[in-house]
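Handover notes (outgoing to incoming on-call)

Open items:
1. Conjugal transfer protein TrbC: sequence verified, structure written out, both below. Nothing else pending on this one.
2. Nothing else urgent.
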Amino acid sequence: MKHIVHSLHVSAQDILLAAPPKPGRKAPGPLKEAVNNALSLASWVGTAAGVAGVIITGAMMAVSMKQGQGSDHLPRLGMVMGGCVLIATAGPVIGFFF
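Conjugal transfer protein TrbC structure tokens:
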């Protein structure tokens, strides 16, 4: 029993004193390419959604004015524009931190 406890203590000490693994910061080639393609696609889809949001909001404003309704569309336009800014700055902001 004493031998088992001693061997467990030595094993635990070896584990604690061992150097931590140092993985590389570079992703494997195929993974990097796949992630870049997915992020590019997401960027284009986000940009298209932002443009569509601005167009739809403008159309709703025009229809409301044509019908004589004084509906306030400015908050909706602000949210759409905020989303556009967020999409446009996401890559550079993350690149700044990493």
